[in-house]
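Quick one before lunch.
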Amino acid sequence: MTTVIREFQDGDAEAVVALWHAAGISRPWNDPARDIAFARRDPHSTILLIEREAAVAATAMVGEDGHRGWVYYVAVDPLLRDLGLGRAIMEAAERWLIARGVWKVQLLVREENGATRHFYEHLGYRDTRTICLQKVIGENAG
Ligand SMILES: CC(C)(COP(=O)(O)OP(=O)(O)OC[C@H]1O[C@@H](n2cnc3c(N)ncnc32)[C@H](O)[C@@H]1OP(=O)(O)O)[C@@H](O)C(=O)NCCC(=O)NCCS
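Model of the coenzyme A complex:
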């Protein structure tokens, strides 16, 4: 079994977006192609993926904003759950941030996604007891 952890490359988009749809993390208001291009536009963020037998098995978008690290688009192929790939992609994201000097990482979990919350808590993530406020800004609002 060949398993590789690597950064997103040109040509990965179709498989990655298919995985996001299969994992149920795509949202109609988020254009995945735009999100991919934006994450890859400069060295502050990237998309990591686990390739298993030459197929995309897991992803995590990771970046730092000058203060904290953030992780988005964490997904494992539904047929490959409970094999340690979720832990492996999260650890890869944390290593990516540590290599850039980041000492705290955070992420957002939808309130209805209780199972995933427990997965993150199992990996050491703790509820910061804050709420996330968001506003769409600028002329490029999607
Ligand atoms: C959440 C998700 C990434 C977990 O991936 P996975 O490959 O099945 O998880 P792993 O097998 O790597 O599990 C890692 C550890 O977490 C534990 N774990 C997994 N799911 C868990 C859960 N729901 N609650 C508590 N612990 C959990 C495992 O037992 C394992 O423990 P161990 O390493 O100490 O033995 C996967 O279920 C997924 O893609 N979900 C849908 C997409 C999603 O909701 N993404 C997050 C958006 S915020």
